[in-house]
Amino acid sequence: MQALIEELESRVSEVMSELAGERVSAMVKLSQNIKFGDYQVNGVMSLAKKLGMNPRQLADKIVVKCDLSDMCEPAEIAGPGFINLRLRSDWLTKQLQKAIYDTERLGVDIVPVSGRTVVDFSGPNLAKEMHVGHLRSTIIGDVLSRVLEFLCGDSDKVVRQNHVGDWGLQFGMLVAYIRETEPDSFADPSVLRVWDLEQFYKNAKKRFDENEEFKQFCYKCTVMLHEKDAATMAVWRAVLGESRRHCKVIYDRLMVNLNESNEKGESTYCDDLPDVIADLAKAGMITESDGAQCVFMPGYNTAEGEPLPLIVQKSDGAFLYATTDLAAVRYRVSKLGASRVIYVTDSRQKLHFQMVFDCASKAGWTGQARLEHVPFGSVLGEDNKPFKTRSGESVKLSALLDEAESRALAVVSQKNPELDAKTKQEIARVVGIGAVKYADLSNNLISDYVFSWDKMLAMEGNTAPYMQYAYARVQSIFRKALTEGKTITAGAAISLQEPAELALAKILVRYAETLSAVSRELRPHILTGYLFELAGEFSTFYNACPVLKAQEPVCSSRLALCRLTADTLKHGLSMLGIETIEQM
RNA sequence: GCACUCGUAGCUCAAUUGGAUAGAGCAUUGGUCUACGAAACCAAAGGUUACAGGUUCGACUCCUGUCGGGUGUACCA
What we know:
Blueprint: H1 4-20, E1 28-30, E2 39-41, H2 44-51, H3 55-65, E3 76-78, E4 82-85, H4 89-101, E5 116-120, H5 135-152, E6 158-161, H6 169-181, H7 183-187, H8 197-210, H9 212-226, H10 230-254, H11 273-282, E7 286-289, E8 292-301, E9 307-313, H12 321-335, E10 338-346, H13 350-362, E11 370-376, E12 379-380, H14 397-415, H15 421-441, E13 449-450, H16 453-456, H17 464-483, H18 499-508, H19 511-521, H20 525-544, H21 554-575
Parallel strand pairs: 5-6, 5-10, 10-11, 12-13
Antiparallel strand pairs: 1-2, 2-4, 3-4, 7-8, 8-9
This protein binds one RNA strand through α2, β8, β9, α13 and α14.
């Protein structure tokens, strides 16, 4: 079966479409108030209007014609023409049963997709260390990739693309700096080791700013790099290797699924750029303006009210990121076979991508593919300005994650002093990293958010630790069950008597539609919201319904509910790239 | 100036993209541990959804205008 809400939607829509004589949507939504059932049909009123009918009478016809008796109690017509649906308890238990057996997918059906989905995210500048500015793109893109991949059940259909900065002046500068300060490494790039990449970059930059001769040398090295001078390329590759080493540490700590096979940096496209210009010119889209090669499209204006161009080649002949992005679109559509390309970058680049998409489409490079920009807001400090260190520098991700772990360690040590040091360390790692990621993901994408240690590690409210705690408590029940000789049988009959049991069951069966909503709307906070609700509903259940002390068959039934709750929490968190621990 | 974006409880944010009585978490106030883990639960209180119009059966959501914040706006990415 497809996701619950989608099943209801398609069944009711079909009946409504028959009555309407055209394709209409039932607009099935989750009810906000249990008084109105579990799901409600909202589309009746507008259809009645269109058909010139009384909405309640139309609702009546729909209800008579639409057989939902396997899933729902008899439908009720309420208010001006809502149809309220309540799930049958025996249907619920059947779904839960199925999900428990299905340890791989928890009853979530595969949704096949045509073509590939390309997700462009993270994209750090490899000349420097990753800083807090890379955090959001990296983890949001990772979550979207995970969800899309899981839903279509085919890892070949989701292609992660790490569009790293690995080309241009900054690398000419690093190569120049190595030639000057480390002749040994220049002679044999394999011995190059950069322990502190950030400091290394800073030193080079300082020299660049202060010494005119060195600056010219940097320009020269950049040209040599672009001309593929062998020795220069060798050092450049060595620098990238060192830089990747730094990146990998961060990706590993963040549990982000990115590796070298996903890396398609700017340099990948450098040979295609002249073709991009040539093809645009052939299509008659290029206009020269102030010596630069430009694409002018309607609807874009400068501050002075003049037409705003997408510049694809500078007056000095150099290419820009717009050119590279256009080349990447071509590659992704024609070579990777993308039917959907998702760009996860901050909202300040919105105009840029609008213009690039517009241009690529006019040039005929997009084919059937849908290009989507997922813009997100900035990470701010407590002063509501971009998050920086006290000295005004960007915060390195390695330092940020260190602090997350040490703060979490302090909390763990306070809450559970009896745990041994190693266990505390591990809990602190999982909780600390989880807290950082969750705080980011649970915010609506588009708004800026203030980075606050106190809030994300408060371990209260809508935070990762709250869910990790819920998970740990379920696991604790299973540990205890084991010592009492109770076995957990997947096939145990589930009966839903208490309100808390029913409420828990109803949220558990919504997991599939939640993931589906995330993949459609590309908003991870839909999933965090769901998990928070699930953990909350479990906590209520945990308090209201004793599990191990209950008589059979209630005990087994509740154990089964616990099993599925734990699996769903763990799975949902894994979609967010957040780990769980058995105890905390 | 123009474009984009946001404005919701004291604070931080939701509201399934036009549905019924706008929901959570912090903070505040009260109640639950001799209990399967209190990093928890239960309850109370908190609102003219920035403002003014409009569209319709129905508006936080769409349209127009006003006010306020953020971002972008020709050779950086």
